[in-house]
Design a protein that fits this description.
Blueprint: E1 13-16, H1 23-39, E2 47-51, H2 57-70, E3 75-78, H3 84-94, E4 99-102, E5 111-117, H4 126-137, H5 148-153, E6 157-160, H6 163-173, H7 176-181, E7 185-189, H8 198-203, E8 209-213, H9 235-244, E9 248-252, E10 259-263, E11 268-269, H10 271-285, E12 292-295, H11 301-309, E13 313-316, H12 320-330, E14 334-337, E15 341-344, H13 353-367, H14 371-382, E16 386-393, H15 396-406, E17 413-414, E18 417-423, E19 428-432, E20 437-442, E21 448-455, H16 461-472
Parallel strand pairs: 2-3, 2-4, 3-6, 7-8, 7-9, 12-13, 12-14
Antiparallel strand pairs: 1-5, 4-5, 9-10, 10-11, 14-15, 16-21, 17-18, 18-19, 19-20, 20-21
Helix pairs in contact: 1-2, 1-4, 10-11, 10-13
Length: 474
C-alpha cells in the first residue's frame, strides 16, 4: 500500500465498502491491532471479534480472525451479528485483550468500519488508535494470515453466541419484571441493525406489549438516509406510534450502541433531552449518586443536575475514547454524548442503546407518567432547554476551506445574542449570554460539518443555527 487510506477517527476507521474498505486494508488493520496487543503484553488473553448486519460484515470479521490467529492470538468469534455493547460484555466475561467489531455504526449503507475496544471494553483511547494506525499504514507491514478453517482446527478460533451472557447481565442492572408488569405499549425500531430482537426479548411476556419494526436483516437500510436514530430517519416510526397507540418508541442504530426516543404522540425526544431524562432517572428516581461525564456537544442540563444533586460533572472532547477513560477515572454514574450514546456504572464504560432504552422504560414504569409530562418534570428542575443540529456534507476542498476559516472566527454575537466565551476544546463552541451555546465541529468519521445549538427558547434554535452556518461560509 503506497498511499494507505486508513485513518482512525473519533470511533475507529470507516470507509466505503470495496473502495477503501477492502479485505487488504482490513487485514492491515487487524495486523496493526495484533501488533499493539502483543506490544501491550495482552496477547495471551485473546481477542473477541464481532460484526454487524452490513454487507459482507461476517466475511470481514472472518478475515480479522484469520490474521489474529496467524499471530497466535486466540479469537472468540461471534457466530452471528451482534451489537457492539454485546461484544463489549464478551470482553469482560472472557477477560480478553479487547475486541474488533466490523461495523460502521450509523453511517450510510455503503460504509463499513473497524472498531477497536480495549480490555476494559471501552473505546480505544487516542494513543492506542494512533499506534494501531501507525502499524496498519506502515509500508513494511508484514500481514500474517491463515485460513479460518485451519485456525479452528488448531483451536485458535472459538465461535460463540454473544447473546446469552449479555442478557443475564442486563437482567442484573434493571428490574425487567417491573417493566413487564407496567402495561406499557412499546414500539421498538431496530433499523435493520444488529440490535434486532434484544429489547423485544427482554421485556415481552407480561402486561407490557412490544411491537418491533425494521427488525429483519437488510444491509441496504431502506427507508432511511442512514441507520441513525434521529428525527429525520424516524418519520415512519412516528406514524407507527400513532397508528398503534404506543406510549413510547425506542430506536437503536446499526450496531445498537445509540438510542433514539419518540413519545406517544410520535414526537422525537432529542438526544440532549434523553440524556437529561436518564440522569434524572438515576439521580432522582433511583436515588443513586456519582459523578457524571459529558462531551462538549451535549446538554448543559447535566451541569444543572450536578449542582442540584451535589455531584461533580466532567466535560471531555467528543467520543467515548475520551468519555470512557474519564468515566473509569471518576467512577462515574453515567456518561453521555450528543450522538445518543450513553454509558452506565456497573456495566461498560461504553455506549449501550439497549440498556439506555430499558432505563427509559423503567423511568416510565416507576413514575407512571407519559414522556411529555416527564420532560416537563425535568424542566421544572433545570429550566427549559431546546436543541437541534445541522449536518452539512462537504467535499475535501470545502472542508479545508472551512477549517481555515474556523481558526480565525471570533464573533461577538450570534443571532443578536452576545457571545460570552469561545471554547476550542473540540471544534469551535460559542458560549452565549443566558446559558445557551452553539458549536461547529468537523466530523472525525464522515465528510460532514455539524453545527449544534442548545438554547433556552425554542424560537431561538433555527436563527442561531442559520447564523452560525453563515459564519462558516458553507
Amino acid at each position: 500500500m503506497t498511499d494507505s487510506p486508513i485513518r482512525f477517527g473519533t470511533d475507529g476507521w470507516r470507509a466505503i465498502i470495496a473502495d477503501e474498505f477492502t479485505f487488504e486494508n482490513v487485514r492491515a488493520c487487524a495486523q496493526g491491532t495484533a501488533e499493539y496487543i502483543r506490544e501491550a503484553g495482552l496477547a495471551e488473553r485473546g481477542i473477541v471479534v464481532g460484526y454487524d448486519t452490513r454487507f459482507a460484515s461476517d466475511r470481514f470479521a472472518a478475515v480479522v480472525a484469520e490474521v489474529m490467529a496467524a499471530n497466535e492470538i486466540h479469537v472468540y468469534l461471534a457466530d452471528r451479528a451482534a451489537p457492539t455493547p454485546v461484544i463489549g460484555h464478551a470482553i469482560i466475561a472472557r477477560k480478553a485483550a479487547g475486541s474488533v467489531v466490523i461495523t460502521a455504526s450509523h453511517n450510510p449503507a455503503e460504509y463499513s468500519g473497524f472498531k477497536v475496544r480495549t480490555e476494559y471494553a471501552g473505546a480505544a483511547p487516542p494513543d492506542v488508535l494512533s499506534t494501531i494506525e501507525r502499524y496498519a499504514r506502515a509500508k513494511t507491514i508484514n500481514v500474517k494470515t491463515i485460513p479460518l478453517q485451519e485456525a479452528e482446527t488448531r483451536d485458535l478460533v472459538d465461535r460463540f453466541d454473544p447473546r446469552e451472557g449479555y442478557l443475564r447481565h442486563i437482567a442484573e442492572l434493571v428490574d425487567l419484571e417491573r417493566i413487564k408488569k407496567a402495561g406499557l405499549s412499546v414500539l421498538v425500531d431496530s433499523m435493520h441493525g444488529a440490535g434486532a430482537g434484544y429489547l423485544a426479548d427482554l421485556i415481552s411476556g407480561g402486561a407490557t406489549t412490544v411491537l418491533e419494526t425494521r427488525g429483519e436483516l437488510n444491509p441496504a437500510f431502506p427507508g432511511m438516509h442512514n441507520p441513525e436514530p434521529i428525527a429525520r430517519n424516524l418519520s415512519a416510526t412516528a406514524d407507527l406510534v400513532r397508528e398503534h397507540g404506543a406510549q413510547v418508541a425506542l430506536a437503536t442504530d446499526g450496531d445498537a450502541d445509540r438510542i433514539g426516543v419518540l413519545d406517544g404522540t410520535g414526537k422525537f425526544v432529542d438526544q440532549l433531552l434523553t440524556y437529561g431524562l436518564l440522569a434524572y432517572y438515576l439521580l432522582e428516581v433511583r436515588g443513586l449518586r456519582g459523578p457524571m461525564v459529558k462531551s462538549v456537544t451535549t446538554t448543559r442540563m447535566i451541569e444543572r443536575l450536578g449542582e442540584i444533586y451535589d455531584v461533580p460533572v466532567h466535560e471531555t472532547p467528543v467520543g467515548f475514547k475520551h468519555l470512557g477513560p474519564k468515566m473509569l477515572e471518576t467512577d462515574a454514574l453515567i456518561a453521555g454524548e450528543e450522538s445518543g450514546g450513553f454509558a452506565f456504572r456497573g456495566h461498560l464504560p461504553e455506549r449501550d442503546g439497549i440498556l439506555s432504552g430499558l432505563y427509559i422504560l423503567d423511568l416510565l414504569a416507576m413514575r407512571g407518567k407519559p414522556l411529555p409530562e416527564l420532560v416537563e418534570e425535568l424542566f421544572e428542575k433545570v429550566g427549559p432547554h431546546f436543541y437541534d443540529r445541522l449536518d452539512i456534507t462537504m467535499s475535501t476542498e470545502a472542508r479545508a476551506q472551512v477549517e481555515d476559516r474556523l481558526r480565525f472566527l471570533e464573533p461577538t454575537s450570534i443571532s443578536g445574542i452576545a457571545v460570552a466565551e469561545i471554547d476550542r476544546t473540540d471544534g469551535l463552541r460559542f458560549n452565549l449570554e443566558g446559558g445557551g451555546w452553539a458549536l461547529i465541529r468537523l466530523s472525525g468519521t464522515e465528510p460532514l460539518m455539524r453545527i449544534y445549538t442548545e438554547v433556552e427558547s425554542e424560537d431561538l434554535v433555527n436563527p442561531v443555527l442559520a447564523s452560525v452556518r453563515e459564519l462558516t461560509g458553507a
